[in-house]
Amino acid sequence: MVEATVQSNGQATGLKNGKATPMPVIDVQDVTKIYKMGDIEVPALRGVTLQIYPGELVAIMGPSGSGKSTLMNILGCLDQPTSGTYRLDGVDVEKLNDNQLAQVRNRKIGFVFQSFNLLRRTSAIDNVEQPLIYAGVKARERHERARAALESVGLGNRLKHHSNELSGGQQQRVAIARALVTNPAIILADEPTGNLDSKSGAEIMCIFQRLNMEQGNTVIFVTHDPRIAAHTRRIIRISDGRIVGDEPVDDPVIACPDEPLRPM
Amino acid sequence: MDVVEAVKLALRTLGANRLRAFLTMIGISIGIGAVIALLAIGSGVQQYINDQFASSGTNLLGIVPGRIQRGPDGGQNTFAPSSFLTMGDYRAVVAGTPNLEAHAADFTSVGNFAYESRTSQVQVSGVTPSFSRVRNWRAISGRFVEEADDNSRARVVVLGQTVANDLFPEEDPLGKQVKINGLPFRVIGVMESKGSSFLGDQDAIAFVPLSTAQERLFQRQAQARTGERVLSTIYLQATSDTVRPQIEAVARDILRERHRLGPDDADDFSIISQTELLNTFGAVTSVLTLFLGAIAAISLLVGGIGIMNIMLVSVTERTREIGLRKAIGATPSAILGQFLIEAIALSLIGGVLGIALGVGIALGVTRFVDFNAIVQPGAVILAVGFSAAVGLFFGIYPARRASKLNPIDALRFE
Question: pTM for the whole thing?
Fold first, then answer.
């Protein structure tokens, strides 16, 4: 079921930086999310409508308690809306069961977390291969793709290193490679520099910008940090479960120090 | 996620926590080891008993006076012999029963042996010469009782190994004269050793001619009220196992008629077949083996609970890993499979170690007792299957718990 829809669409829209792309990769219509704490209903999202197009580099910003985490969970198919619709890359997510959601997460979403979440006592390349195992990719191809992904984040010489032998910045790069390796429709990054010093943070942001500019990946940051948001080209502000601002960034900060970014 | 990947992953995870995995396995290993060792020892004892019976002659029926009856608790109660088996009974049974390979009779009592300053109280059997053949028991030196001895009520004795060793620790007993109940006897032979068995020391015995026992040694005891000479046992050896029931029936009819028993009277003698005894002992040892096996299985249960415990700890510890796996596309069934396979791998490896342990114990026991513990392939297969089942059973709950974790909560878990 999901399979068919996945293949009918894909990221074939081809327009990377355009604002008038016909098919948004994320299409959220009037989504609400209400948590029940005993008898009390706590609304976390009060009707969010939002579109993100392929190739965008977006920050979803808001203070804690604003609902941005809830929104991220829904965008990441880790949670489902109470009402409203969410189409991810053409798939109606709210109709899917647990197994189908797992498949959508596997094929269409790459997660990058604040705390990296690498498997302990596991080499970098094995970590990156994990999503491909769940996708049923054969060992040899898996290995090749994982290596390519690690090379693209500059860790081609650290394939066999275990996570505890890598610095924080390197660990986060492994996590980015893991997110990339399935060639997902979107990369969802939750405070990706939150646990890093500013130098490593800048390196990470550079990688995200390069992936976006050079390879056309759609990257969505969820953050409360204006410095991260400043690296994107669009900032969506959320407060009290509603979108309160959505504007382009006129002059994004470029994180990569030396080489200029080459837009595709 | 295919099974090969899942197994690799499980082994890698267990390998990452070697000490814990090993300690958990030990529980299963001890359980499986105990089951295998006890089943092996049980089979060994069974085999030993079978051998003991086989060595006492094959296709053998024994007729003894008195009645052996099954008590209300299913056990056997022996009635004190209120009747006798006489020489006349013996002759009549032998004459009237077809398909006899051989037959023998004995009269057994206890005699006081004396040689020089040494004395010993020994079981003495007066036997027909055929006894040696029927019981498959021969003289190792000298000779056994012969026809001529019996005809002449000769005062000759064949000593069992134990008696020979007791009375003649440093001499060859052959040709020596011993006194039995004060009467002088010449030692004409020494029996081969039968060893001790569950029946006691079989070599603590001496043989004299039947007529000598009845008419010289134990005159008073060996006499029925009618004055006839009596017997302790009549042995009938069937030509084959298939005719044994027929022989038993014919002998019973003859004896009932001779003892003038009415249709409603119970037998005043008992016919014991080797097979029957074997079955009785077999039943006892099977129950014992089963019982010990069940106790061992309890330790397996404890081992299983150990696995469940460690898997629950593992699920809690790895909550974030589970959350991450779900985020990158693991379905609930993939998570379930992962933890289940870990549990099964744990108990299977434990089971294999347990088999080694059990075989080791069985071999060790064999070195110290005079029977061989037999490790049966069936027990090993059973043990492997059982340990996998233990892993499956005790792994399901923790694995289900892991598979049902909400990925959001799991990712946030500290």
Answer: 0.71
